[in-house]
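User: Could you write out the 3D structure of this protein bound to adenosine-5'-diphosphate? I've included everything you need below.
Assistant: Certainly. Input first, then the structure.
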Amino acid sequence: MNFNRAVIKVGSALVAPSRDGCSGQYILAIAQFITKCQQQGKEIILVSSGGVAAGRTIIQHGSPKLSLSTKKAMASVGQMQMMANWQRFFDVPCSQILITQNDLADRERFISIQETIKIQLANGVLPIVNENDTVTTKALAIGDNDNIAALVAQACEADSLFILSDIDGVFTKDPNINDDAVLIPNIDKITDEIYAMAGTSRNPLASGGMKTKIQAAEKAVEHGINTYIVNGTKSEVFSSLLAKVNPGTRFAADKDIITAKKHWLKHTLKSRGKIKLDPGAVNAVVNKGASLLPSGIKSVTNRFKAGDAIDLVDARNNAVIAKGITLYSHYDLKRIMGKHSNDITDILGHDQGDVVVHRDDMVIL
Ligand SMILES: Nc1ncnc2c1ncn2[C@@H]1O[C@H](COP(=O)(O)OP(=O)(O)O)[C@@H](O)[C@H]1O
Ligand SMILES: N[C@@H](CCC(=O)OP(=O)(O)O)C(=O)O
């Protein structure tokens, strides 16, 4: 359980336990844990939820089910309260980093976030990240900080991710509604069976429940990041972590780490379209590690630009075999599909290179 750089994700229930403004009830023990880690020379990045719960008393609301705009208004005012609440427990300066899915999906912005965090860590700052709720739309929002925390852990090359919630870890079913639920201390492989155990949250101000925590763990372990889901309401949990004892559920990091870029491509970028490949192209891409040439493309679906992520589909059975970044738009691809690479310039009047999807910009699924 050794770690040098960790992302710690703190859920709404810990920041604002009564769902009405912030409290120090659980934050104090978490802040003490972070301080002890920092004193041992470890680097910590905090991902904190709780903006909506913290701002709930300030924005008027009628029904218990809040609209997206009301939640955004709460989040933006609650963010100030939440940051102030954290800062009062630290002597080190805290920084506020608000990000969206678009920021993480754009390679340049991803690198910008990465550089900012690294410089702050080198200067003894505690970065505190949350989703920028004001500017997100329903379609674009990652919508939960569990997944954001996994992506941040990847961006700042953390070796561990701690997801602190109001529950001891992953149980065989939701323990809040099933008395016979049993805690699973170690998960070596995240299977459909594990996902089937994970339910939603009963807290209307939280977003994901256990499902998004498992998704986050899957993203993180695949990137070589050990992930823990532990109970942040129990101060003894932090003594266990400092004593290198697992107090909750541990997901072991994948030994076969895929590169940062492929991880970003697979998990963060949304596919904008699909192209169907003939058997020769499928074989070349899947078995020979080749780039995709226009000659192997049989059809193009949806509208997309050069630089977008698209699905590569086996035309024989419609199975998605890979995801990659296309160097050509749907419009250009419709004109060069099935053609030899040497003919691209003649057909289009320009060319972006011989290949449609380069091997380095592709992940096999
Ligand atoms: N299999 C499961 N194991 C543990 N908790 C589960 C499970 N399925 C659903 N849950 C629920 O997930 C909740 C934690 O998620 P959530 O409320 O979103 O926390 P946070 O606000 O910390 O992100 C638990 O309180 C529990 O009710
Ligand atoms: N950006 C939102 C985070 C919502 C969220 O992910 O909540 P949770 O499931 O408690 O981690 C907020 O600050 O309230």
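The first helix runs from residue 12 to 15.
User: Perfect, thank you.
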